[in-house]
Amino acid sequence: MRTLQLPIQEEDILSLHVGDPVALCGVMITGRDAVHKWMVDTFIKKTRSPQGDDLEVYAALKPLLDGGVIYHCGPVVSGLDSGAYRLVAAGPTTSIREEPYQGDVMRHFRLRGVIGKGGMGAKTLAACKEVPGVYLHAIGGAASLIAQTVVKVLGVYKLDFGVPEAMWVIEVKYFPAVVTMDAHGESLHAVVEAQSRAALDNLLAQP
Amino acid sequence: MPEIIEYILELVRLAATDLPPDVEISLRQAVEQEEPGSAARGALETILQNVALSRANSTPICQDTGTPIFYVQHPEGWSTRKMRQQIEAAVAEATQRAYLRPNSVDSLTGNNTGNNLGGQHFPTIHFEEVEDDTLTVDLILKGGGCENVGAQYSLPNTSLGAGRDLAGVRKVVLDAVHKAQGKGCAPGILGVAIGGDRGSSYLASKEVLVRQMDEPSPDPELAALEERLTAESNQLGIGPMGFGGKTTVLSTKITSLNRLPASYFVSVSYMCWAYRRRRMTLQGDQVSYQ
Fold it and tell me: Looking at chain A, which residue has its C-alpha nearest residue B275?
C-alpha cells in the first residue's frame, strides 16, 4: 500500500496505475450531487449568478482543491447541535451521477483526484489524462471503517444543502482506496464492463 | 395497543449498525471464493472488518442509511394512525442519535427535512392486520446506490430475446445485473417480482427481500430459477465493488403476482451487500429481535 500526501504532486499521479492500492493523508473535501451542479452552474458554465456566500466559499475552496481531491460522500455526522462535528459513517457514494460535471470540475480546479465508488465514464477518464488525475475507488458501504481514518473535521461549507450534500473539509490519515482509473487512459471499469458484456451475451444465447 | 417507540428505536439501531448473521455468513463464504491478494478479496475483507466495527461501536454500517421501509403486521383493532406517529417519532430520534443520516429531501425545493420525516411516504410504512395477537415489524434500510440500479422490464423484450415465460425472466434479470455492474455495491441480493402492475410489481420485489438468505421460494420452479440466477450472475465476473471477481450476487429471491392478460412485468430490486433488514416481534410485553 502506497501513501499519498495531499495535495498530490503531478509526478506521483503519473506514477499511479490501475490496481494500485493507496492510503491518503492530508486534507480533502466531500462533494456530491448538489455541489457538482452548483460548481458547474455558478462558476464554470455561469448559467446562474453567484448568490449568498457563493463567492466566499469559492475563494476558500480554490486553494483546497488545487492539487487536491474531492470525495463523493454524504456522511453521517454527530455534533450537529454543538458544532463539535465528528464523522460517524463516511463511505463513498455512487460516482457516475457526477459524470456530466466531473471532467469540467477537475479541469477548473486542477483536481488531482476523485474518490467514490462504482467508477466513472469516458468524459472523466479523458479529464484524468488531461489534468492529470486519477479516480480512486473506496469500498462502498465500509462507512464506519473509513470514518475512523477521518481524524478531524476542519469545517463545513454549504450546510444549507443538507448534511449529506454539504462540503465537509476533513483531515484524513491513511484513507484506503484503489486506483481504478489512471492518468494513462486505463479504466478497470471499462475492462470489467466489456468482459461481463461478453459473458452476458454468452448466457443470453443459452436457453 | 402498547407504546412502541422504544422498541422501534432499537429495531432501527439494530438494522443500521448490526448486519444480520445470515448475511455475514454469506459474505464470509464469498471471501473464500476470491483469489488471495485480489482487489475483490481485499474489498470483501474490508467489508467484514467494517461489519465488526459497526456492530461494536453501534455506528452505521453504511453512511447511506437509505429509505426506512417498515412492514407492520398488527393485531385487530390497533390504530395505524397511532402506530405511524410512534414509528415516525422513533425514526426522528434515531436520526438525532446518528443511527440514521437525514435522508428525506423535498423533491421540489431540495430542502432536507433533517429528521428523516416528510409527507405520508417517508419513511415508507406498510400495514397489514393479522389474526393473532402478535405485532411483527420488519424493517429494511435500502440505500440509494442500489435503489438506483433497480430495473423493470415489460415482456416480451425483443432486444434481449426475452419472451413471456421463466426463460424470459432469466434473461432480463441477467441484463439488470450486468447493467448494475458494481454501482449497487456488489455483491448484491436480488429481489425479483414477476407480474402485477408496475406499482405492485416493484413493491413485491422489495417485500421478498425480508426472506432469509438460505430461504428459497416455496415454489420449486422459482426456487430452481433463484439458484440458477445466482450462479449465472456470478459467471458475469463483475465481482465485489465491480472490481472483477467471482462474487457478484449472494442470493436471489423471486416471487410472483397475478397480472393482467396484456401485461407481463419483471421488476428487479437490487439490494447492496449491506443487506440491512431486521425483525421485531412483540407479544404482550415480550419483545424479541431477529
Answer: A141
- B185 and B96 fall within a common domain: no
Residue type, A61: L
CA distance B128 to B149: 28
Q: Do residues B81 and B61 lie in contact, with contact meaning Cβ atoms separated by under 8 Å?
A: no
Which chain A residues are closer than 8 Å to B228 by Cβ? none
Q: Are residues B10 and B135 in the same domain?
A: yes
Q: Are residues B138 and B280 in the same domain?
A: yes
Q: What is the pLDDT of residues B125-151, one digit of tens each?
A: 999 999 999 999 999 999 999 999 999
B155 within domain boundaries: yes
Residue A84 to chain B, least CA–CA distance (Å): 14
User: For residue A39, which amino acid is it?
Assistant: M
Instruction: Count A/B contacts: CB-CB distance under 8 Å.
Output: 168
- Smallest CA–CA distance, residue A21 to chain B, in Å, is 9
Q: Are residues B90 and B165 in the same domain?
A: no
Let me know whether B219 and B164 are in one domain.
Answer: yes
What is the per-residue pLDDT across B169-223, written as a single tens digit (0 to 9) for each? 999 999 999 999 999 999 999 999 999 999 999 999 999 999 999 999 999 999 9
- Sheet harboring B265-271: ordered strands across? B151-154, B265-271, B188-194, B249-256
Please judge whether B237 and A196 are an interchain contact, meaning their C-beta atoms are less than 8 angstroms apart.
yes
B139 falls within a domain: yes
**Structure confidence by residue, pLDDT tens digits, A14-73:** 999 999 999 999 999 999 999 999 999 999 999 999 999 999 999 999 999 999 999 999
User: Taking the model in full, what pTM does it have?
Assistant: 0.95
Q: Which domain holds residue B236?
A: 145-271
Task: Tell me how close the Cα of B205 comes to any Cα of chain A, in angstroms.
Answer: 22
What tens digit of pLDDT does each residue of B247-262 get?
999 999 999 999 999 9
The answer to whether the Cβ–Cβ distance between B242 and A195 falls below 8 Å is no
CATH architecture of A2-204: Alpha-Beta Barrel (3.20)
d(CA B95, CA B146) in angstroms, rounded, equals 21
- Provide the strand spans (E) within B52-180: 67-74, 124-129, 134-142, 151-154
Cα dihedral value B145, A146, A137, A135, nearest 10: 110
Residue B165 domain flag: yes
The DSSP symbol for A40 reads I
